[in-house]
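Our preliminary data section would be incomplete without showing what the modeling component actually yields. Below, a chain of 121 amino acids is followed by its predicted structure, encoded as C-alpha cells that our downstream tools consume directly.
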Amino acid sequence: VKTGNMIFVAGQLAHASKPNADGSFDFYMGDFEEQFRATLENIKAVLANYGATMDDVVFLQNFVVPKTRSGKKAGNYNPIAAKLISEYFPNGLHAMTFAEVQGLYGDDQLVESNAIAVVRK
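Predicted structure:
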C-alpha cells in the first residue's frame, strides 16, 4: 500500500467558495440539488487548493435534513444525490455515507458534507 498525504475537508455547506469583499459568504438556499451541488463544488475547490481532485476522495460523508425548521423539505433526495455523485465522482472509487439528521446550520440548510482525500505521491 502506498502512503500519501491526507486532506480532511469538513463542514461544507451550500455557500459560495469565495467570500464577498466584507468577508461574508453568499448562501444558496435553493432546493436539495442546488445545495448538494454547492457542497460538492466547495469540496472540489478545497481539494484543488492542495493539488488534489475529486478522484483522490476516499470517503464522503453527507448529512441531510429531511425537513428544516422552517418547513422546507429535502424530498426524495436519493435520485438527485445519485445523479450528482455520478457527475462529481465518475470513477466511483470511494466509501460514502448519507445520514439523516435534525437541524443543520441555518434554518433552510438541507445538506452538509465532509470528505477525506488521500493524495498518493
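The radius of gyration is 15 Å. Strands lie at 4-12, 57-64, 95-100, 111-120. Preliminary results of this kind motivate Aim 1 of the renewal.
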